[in-house]
């Protein structure tokens, strides 16, 4: 489950269709990721980001008004870029950020990975093999190269305020990539948020993400799932000690929700905890990026 980056239960897209999403996003009246009224209209654009390994399909968001804003990179969970993450990018951009949500598995497949719902309690081996195979392509070296390409793309946008630091946030597998992003661009990334990143944030392996913390210059927000913590409660203490040793400001907290709680459409989605995570995320960015 968590150790394998697999969400338990049914995962479905909360949107009826991409056409429905386009109509709602175009109206920019509501951010479906949290159900909160958006502060401002948002421009959403499908883009291609050049990387050392090819071209990554991604979505770019920015406020629909004149000005420049800090940049934020979103790393998705293991199910990749799909409309629910478009909703999340929309919600974030409405708060005054230029947001890029890439398809992390562009080397293998254009987003989305699956059409329709996926029930991991009943998933066949081919679905699991696909996910594990895709995750295996994202080596530390690949993530580092991609991170630099994504940030360079963000910084090249006329709406991006490059005089201000950037943020990165990740969910599930994307949480690990967020630390790697901060280490790949320590002078650029000032804030890192990771939600239900599982128990591979801190391991005894030489490439454990937590060992990169001293190479970063960011403030951190870590939200662990209660079932991940129940499996390995020492993870949060290892993280706290690593942040303290590196002198990095960090909040490490266990949320009363299970792995995947932040992403609407997951069987474990928990709206109160998801909204709380958004509140803490906005606080982090407001104090480090604005």
Would you write up a description of this structure?
- This protein has a single domain (10-288), classed as 3-Layer(aba) Sandwich (Rossmann fold).
- The strands form three sheets. Strands 4-5-7-6-9-10-11-12 form an eight-stranded mixed beta sheet, sandwiched between helices.
- Helix content is 34%, strand content 22%.
- The protein is α/β, with parallel strands linked by helices.
- The protein has eight helices and twelve strands.
List the helices and strands and how they pair.
Blueprint: E1 10-11, H1 18-27, E2 30-31, E3 36-37, E4 42-51, E5 54-63, E6 71-75, H2 83-93, E7 98-102, E8 118-119, H3 125-137, H4 140-155, E9 166-171, H5 173-184, E10 189-195, E11 219-225, H6 226-231, H7 234-246, E12 250-255, H8 271-288
Parallel strand pairs: 6-7, 6-9, 9-10, 10-11, 11-12
Antiparallel strand pairs: 1-8, 2-3, 4-5, 5-7
Helix pairs in contact: 4-5
Strand order of the largest sheet: 4-5-7-6-9-10-11-12
| Whole-number tally of structural domains | 1
| CATH-level-4 superfamily name | Alpha/Beta hydrolase fold, catalytic domain
Termini separation: 37 Å
CATH architecture: 3-Layer(aba) Sandwich
Main beta sheet strand tally, sense and closure:
8 strands, mixed
Structural category: alpha/beta
Radius of gyration: 17 Å
Which class in CATH terms?
Alpha Beta
Provide the β-strand percentage band: 15-25%
Mean pLDDT: 88
Described by the principal axes of the CA atoms, the overall outline is globular
Kindly state the number of beta strands: 12
